[in-house]
Amino acid sequence: MGFDYALVHLKYTIPPAVGLTWLYRPFFTKLDVYKVVYLILVAVLSTIPWDSYLIRTGIWSYPAHVIVGPKLLDIPLEEVFFFVVQTYNTSILYLLLSRPTFQPVYLSPERGASGHRWRYTKFAGQIFFLGVIAWGWRCIKDDSKGTYTGLILIWAGPFLLLLWSLAYQFILALPLTNTAAPIILPTLYLWIVDTLALRRGTWVINTGTKYGVHLWDGLEIEEALFFLVTNSLIVFGQLAFDNALAVLYTFPALFTKPSLLPSPMVLMRALLTSCSKYDDARLVGLGEAVHRLKRKSRSFYLASATFPGPLRADLLLLYSFCRVADDLVDNASSADEAKDWIAKLRKFLNNTYSDSASKPTIQAQVREDFPAGTQSALLQLPAAKLSHQPLEDLLRGFEMDLAFDKEPLIKTTEDLRLYSERVAGTVAQMCIELIFNWYPSALPVEEQRTIVAAGNGMGVALQYVNIARDIEVDAKIGRVYLPLKWLAEVGLSYDEVLKKPDHPQIEALRKRLLKDAFSLYEEAKDAIERLPIEARGPIRVAVESYMEIGRVLGQANFKVKAGRATVPKSRRIMPFPDNYTDETTFLDHLQRNPRLQPYEFWSLMGDATVIVQHLATVIIFACCFVAIIHDRVSPVAIVGWATLCTVLAWFLWDHWMGQEFATVSNVASTPTSDTDKAGPQPSSALSGRAQQRLATAKSALLIYAALLGLSPILKSLTRSTTSDSIWALSTWLLLMNVAFFDYSGGTGAQYEDHSPFEYTCG
After folding, report:
1. Which of 160, 218, 461, 758 is deepest in the core (most CB within 10 A)?
2. Does any domain span residue 697?
């Protein structure tokens, strides 16, 4: 019995699992858990028979002194756990690296010349993996030294062949961050771990079944191949899973209302769906939507990666429609042309939501009225999941924009609110409608409407931030969205802002607009917590990444690029706290805490001594430990001096406590009235002192007896444990001791139940 293999997990596999989980935690969904658990189950069930065969035939083995003992089909439980933790770590790394990628756009219908290329590529890959299997079989048959290599290849080859045949498009087309990186990074890491384990003898490969070739000193070529192949299997499995999900959620004509947690049979049906059945128009629409998102809105592009796959697709298509509609109106050469575009858009929406207009009629109208580059955005709008009114209000917002050509439109705060509700609040409202469509809620209908209304308010807040950011940009195109009433209050006119948008008074108005934005944000942000759990985190990230622009604008020296405030990408993608402060009103609203109790310096230092004392004890222990390990001092000397110091310290403490007892006893025994004189006298301090000394002696003897009794056992258990394992275990235990020690009691807490006063007066 030993702990070497368990310590490999403690040192090398569990910490990465914890770190990766912490990094991916904000993005975890039920579907992610389903994928990871499913792959772990497949990995364990497919590996156990193969691993059991290798152990029983003596190809590799685990010495008895390195494993705890329990086995499953001759496989140590530590090895079974390795199957689980390797699959988990590689899967989470894949999910983390692939999260920003919108994978459905990498599907291909395989028609025409591109179809021939895909088929040839698929066939070439199948030939390659068949060759790998054949080579593995030959290694087993022809040469005993190639047995281990052959068993790896004939075990993994069929799985790789199957996964390649099902998901070859994703394996080849996706970015390397989705395919190569999740294989290479964990493989390199496990090569290092395996090198350390082989050198330590945690597992042993039979010399007669390996080539004896080393990738580097200590790493057998067979072990390097094993980890490369197993990580490839895990990533290929993830790619096949995502390929199935992409087909399932991208083509509603093939799979109507698919489950958010599809069964393995449904996933297999999706993978086996012929590529020729893929909807070209749908793929083109999604591809153009992603392209527009990358060019037009960095904030929403970064935030969209946090949304689950099916919801993300609909949000991209909704954004694409809104972006195209806005560009058609904004880029019109005249007001009449812009009005014409709005009329055509309104006609399209009326036809879309009309029961009488057929799909061919709608398609014909789009092809006739709109440029080719915009048609897919209109035709792929998920109108069936959206209500008509927000889209109509969006067009009314465009009409308000056109009114700027005649006269300033926004005269009051109410006008600004109405405009923002139409151009931004409607978009936020439609996003929430899509969320409730994909993730039905058990909330009452009225409460859902309240959440939708709060979403509209949040959209207004985001639009206020947008206006505050783009004051100079808007002035260049002849528009000022700040209310005329606000301008008059600071002595500015509409024309003055157009001529000089960087006027000093503008900054005060920007701050005022941001204050209103954050006020609306505060009112609406609680509604996020009532959204379906799958959408809360993504919506929070999307909102905060945009509100961070407002926080930057509120700072004194924000950076301006092309007339707009810029925010570093690292600040956009992190979930930010609510830390906006309006500098002009902060002190006015600051309130003192009436229950605040100021600390005296020395009492604070006294309370801190318990922390300092414990940390000092740990440091002294660590120094003694290091000194013993390096044979610089004798363990007997340390124990002897520690015992002597402990006894002397106890005598000093006992003397001090005796003085405390005497002082308290004198105070307690002094009569304060005739009644006290006649009353019962307190017991002598001697009995309390004797009890305390007896309790101390008991504790000391118990600790010494336990240490003396356990020392031989611990020595025999750790005799076969390597030094690096001892260091790792000691470090973990010390860190746990420091982290979980009870610092809350204060310096005298441990004596609270047996105070001198209690013994004297009790």
Report:
1. 461
2. no
Ranges of H-type helices in 251-387: 264-272, 280-296, 298-304, 309-330, 335-352, 359-369, 372-379
CATH number, domain with residue 390: 1.10.600.10
Same domain (yes/no): 338, 400: yes
The answer to whether residue 677 is domain-embedded is: no
Q: Do the beta carbons of residue 423 and residue 463 sit within 8 Å?
A: yes
Q: Which of 385, 392, 500, 519 is nearest to 440 (CA)?
A: 385
How far is Cα 560 from Cα 703, in angstroms, rounded to an integer? 67
Last residue in a domain, options 228, 256, 278: 278
* pLDDT higher than 70, residue 604: no
Helix ranges (DSSP H) in 422-532? 426-438, 445-469, 471-476, 484-489, 494-499, 504-524
Q: SS3 for 502?
A: coil
Per-residue pLDDT tens over the stretch 500-514: 888 888 888 888 999
Asked if 308 and 316 touch (Cβ cutoff 8 Å), the reply is no
Q: Which has the closest alpha carbon to 485: 403, 410, 584, 401?
A: 410
pLDDT digits (tens, 9 = 90+) for 373-389: 888 989 999 988 899 99
Cβ atoms of 325 and 396 closer than 8 Å: no
**Distance (Å, whole) CA 19 – CA 85:** 13
Neighbours of 494 (CB within 10 A): 17
Give the mean pLDDT of 230-258.
91
Distance CA 202, CA 242 (A): 36
Measured CA to CA in angstroms, residue 226 lies from 38, 41, 195, 201, 362 at distances of 21, 19, 13, 18, 56
Domain end among 625, 645, 665: 645
Q: How many domains does the chain have?
A: 3
> Are residues 450 and 526 both part of a single domain?
yes
Residue 564 is assigned to a structural domain of this protein: yes
Closest CA to 55 of 70, 76, 69: 76
pLDDT of amino acid 112: 75
Tokens of 606: 């006294």
pLDDT bin (cut points 50, 70, 90) of residue 700 is: confident
pLDDT over 70, % of the chain: 84
- Per-position b or e across 690-719, b if 16+ CB within 10 A of its CB: eebeeeeeeeeeeeeeeeeeeeeeeeeeee
Decide if 30 contacts 747 (C-beta within 8 A). no
Domain that includes residue 618, residue range: 609-645
Rounded to whole angstroms, the Cα distance separating 567 from 561 reads 10
Q: Which tokens is 337 given?
A: 């042309």
Q: 21 and 169 in one domain? A: yes
Strand segments, DSSP code E, in 18-125 are 60-61, 71-72, 75-76
Displacement of CA 344 from its chain's centroid (Å): 43
Instruction: Please write the tens of the pLDDT for every residue from 61-73.
Output: 887 877 887 888 8
Residue 432 lies in a domain: yes
Lowest-confidence segment of 197-201, 218-222, 664-668, 714-718 by average pLDDT:
664-668
- Interval 428-455 mean pLDDT: 87
In a shared domain, residues 196 and 49: yes
Residues 321 and 190 in one domain: no
The verdict on 299 and 438 lying in the same domain is yes
Same domain, yes or no: 233 and 86: yes
757 CB-contact burial (10 Å; exposed 0-12 / middle 13-18 / buried 19+): middle
